[in-house]
Amino acid sequence: MAGDAFSDLRIDYGDDALRRADLPADPVDLFARWLDLARDAGVREPNAMSLATCDAQDQPHCRMVLLKQLDTNGFGFFTNKQSGKGEQLRANARAAATFWWVAPRARQVRIEGVIAELPEADSLAYFLSRPRNAQICSAASPQSRVVADRAELEAMVDAFAKEVGDLAVPKPQHWGGYALLPSVMEFWQGREARLHDCFRYVRGEAGWQVDRLAP
Predict the structure, then answer these.
(1) Number of C-beta neighbours around residue 126 at 10 A
(2) For the whole model, what pTM was predicted?
(3) Is 194 a catalytic residue?
(4) CA 191 to chain centre
(5) pLDDT tens digits, one per residue of 35-85
(6) Which residue among 44, 107, 194, 200 is the active-site one?
(7) Helix or strand (DSSP H, E) at 112
(8) CB of 51 within 8 A of CB of 114?
(9) What's the CA gap between 14 and 189, in Å, rounded?
(10) Is residue 86 within 8 Å of residue 79, measured between CB atoms?
(11) 83 vs 77: CA distance, rounded Å
């Protein structure tokens, strides 16, 4: 079976270290530094993150989304709010995200916290910055809903494109942004022999507390 082949899949992560002396007071500063290094190294979509949510029945869900905003509002992403993730976030406004960059240095960042809706101005600004075809597809697609086949989906997009014509594509009311406001951030640096460096920031009343975790 395929599992037999997986036992031989290994990567030597090298010996890039993450030391306590390397850690800034604010973990978002370290995240931004790591993201910039991944982007400068040519990592494809370094802003891709695994977003985990939980529905009203406590069933977890996970999918990849793209980080599109990072500021005092938190880690921002945009979606159809009538999608599965939108329904889950209405039921449980807590989430977790993971970033993974295997090159140029094996690094992982885990984030946990609460979700808040981004201001409408942020959502509109990002929607208007998207390519026109992406605007049309995101406005026409009933994200997460069952469709009969690809032809039905393409017909929805074609019909909406004809309706809009040459006019500006209006941002749907149900499309917008969320921000993950971190209460826990964990930084993982791969090292030789799986003796990795891992530091966890936990937000408290007095600021961020930092602890080293065993890998």
Answers:
(1) 19
(2) 0.92
(3) yes
(4) 25
(5) 999 999 999 999 999 999 999 999 999 999 999 999 988 999 999 999 999
(6) 194
(7) strand 107-117
(8) no
(9) 10
(10) yes
(11) 14
Q: Shortest CA distance to 189 belongs to which of 69, 70, 109?
A: 109
Determine the distance from the C-alpha atom of residue 22 to the mean position of all C-alpha atoms in its chain, rounded to a whole number.
24
> 51: closest CA among 138, 176, 180, 174?
180
Written as six digits, the tokens of 110 are 């885990």
Chain segment 132-158, per-residue pLDDT in tens: 999 999 999 988 888 899 999 999 999
Contacts of 120 (CB under 8 A, 6+ apart): 176
Question: Residue 102's closest CA among 33, 12, 185, 193?
Answer: 12
- Joined together, the tokens standing for residue 108 give 């992982």
Q: What are phi and psi of 180, to 5 degrees?
A: -90, 115
Which helix or strand (DSSP H or E) is residue 164 part of? helix 150-164
